[in-house]
Amino acid sequence: MSLAVKVNIKPKNFKDIPKKMRKSVQAQVKRALSKTAEVGINIIEERTEKGMGFEGGKFKAYTKSYAKFKVKSTAKGGGGARSSFPNLKLTGQMMSSIRAKANNKRAVISFTRSVEQEKIKGNNRTRPFFGFSRAENKELGEKFTRFLDER
């Protein structure tokens, strides 16, 4: 599963830019998209850690049996305190496998491991976390513009 970071930029057609400047502009766009995607990953991770979905509101509660298992697994040397509230973090592997790739047209946020991609399908259905709200999209657009202006 992947998520494309969509940001509208002008000019959409690089052919309108003089040939000498085109490579430089494309490199700037790629760099800005890459940085924007990294901000997007941070947004997803921070929001998920708080138990919040991108559609607003808190995540649906874990089942009682899973919440009990999650807390109990800490005692077995699972590392770190695990809460019983939903934050999609048992081992940390799913969230740590989020990566971003960018070219001069788009950035894509995805998961590096196929095991994690499978987990996401179920988790995102029950507790939508892998996406951006309108406000977050607006924030990403503003960050992109700021990154594009950096030299």
Q: Can you describe what's shown?
A:
The chain is mainly alpha-helical and 151 residues long. It has one domain. It is 52% helix and 9% strand. The chain is built from 5 helices and 3 strands; from the N terminus they run βαααββαα. It has helices spanning 19-49, 64-78, 93-96, 114-126, 134-149; strands at 2-5, 98-102, 107-111. A 3-stranded antiparallel β-sheet has the order 1-3-2. A hairpin with a 4-residue loop joins β2 (98-102) and β3 (107-111). α1 (19-49) packs across α5 (134-149). The protein is elongated and about 65 Å long. The model has no long low-confidence stretch (mean pLDDT 80).
Tally of strands: 3
What letter string, H or E per element, gives the SSE order?
EHHHEEHH
How does the major sheet shape up? 3 strands, antiparallel
Helix content: 40-55%
In spatial order, strands of the major sheet run 1-3-2
Oligomeric organization of the protein chains: single chain
The termini sit apart by 33 Å
Tell me the domain tally. 1
- Helix/strand-derived class? mainly alpha
